Amino acid sequence: MAGKKVLIVYAHQEPKSFNGSLLKIAVEELTKQGCSVTVSDLYAMQFEPRATRNDIVGHLHNPEAFNYGVETWEAYKRGGLSKDLVEEQKKVQEADLLIFQFPLFWFNMPAILKGWMDRVLVQGFAYDLSKAYDGGLLQDKLSLFSFTTGGGQEMYSKGGIGGDIRYILWPMQHGIMHFCGVKVLAPHICYAPENVSEEKRKEMLTAWTQRLKTLWKEEPIDCSPEWYFK
């Protein structure tokens, strides 16, 4: 939709990968719609995933015992977070839609993307102790987790060895995005692209293109435990 701003946080090492193709399609299709698209390519940026003392510029609130959560909260309030975090927070603040594009690693997002969540979405910016979930500080934004798996769809079913894929989505969609007040669109999952035919991979890419064409008309999911565990 023209005028909308989109931030794609991309976590894959190889531009020619299937994830890279999904990213390229999203940038092209959303730009074609008149959206302003920004990409945080975490590996290309050599984004630092570790939450450390280096994230705070200047003095510590309590130099005797380092507490990352407290120190980043205090630093945010006084404008004392490191430059890379301030830049990412600005991208988030300006975005109407956050898309996270990544391969599933060990039932989770890659460490570099988890580090982005840990370091960027700090208290005071994304949430506060009395302002979380529907009261989170990043309201009026949408999010979408688009990812690939190694196993097939049957593996991630309720009767499959991996269990329902929604169980895996609980900490990502509910524990992070919903906690920060962000509305969540249904995930876009490409199952086992490395283990299917070239024709099937093309179908997956076409399906992503088609979904993006009507993405702004979609309603967010019901952010409740029932959606994940019913």
TrEMBL record:
Residues 4-212 form the Flavodoxin-like fold domain. The keyword Zinc applies. Its cofactor is FAD; Zn(2+). Its main location: cytoplasm. It is found in: Cytoplasm. One of its GO terms (cellular component) is cytosol. Keywords: Cytoplasm, FAD, Flavoprotein, Metal-binding, Oxidoreductase, Phosphoprotein, Zinc. The enzyme apparently serves as a quinone reductase in connection with conjugation reactions of hydroquinones involved in detoxification pathways as well as in biosynthetic processes such as the vitamin K-dependent gamma-carboxylation of glutamate residues in prothrombin synthesis. Coiled coil: none annotated. It catalyses: 1-(beta-D-ribofuranosyl)-1,4-dihydronicotinamide + a quinone + H(+) = beta-nicotinamide D-riboside + a quinol. Its EC number is 1.10.5.1. GO terms for molecular function: dihydronicotinamide riboside quinone reductase activity; metal ion binding; NAD(P)H dehydrogenase (quinone) activity. The lineage of its organism: Eukaryota, Metazoa, Chordata, Craniata, Vertebrata. This is Ribosyldihydronicotinamide dehydrogenase [quinone]. Belongs to the NAD(P)H dehydrogenase (quinone) family. Homodimer. The keyword Nuclease does not apply.
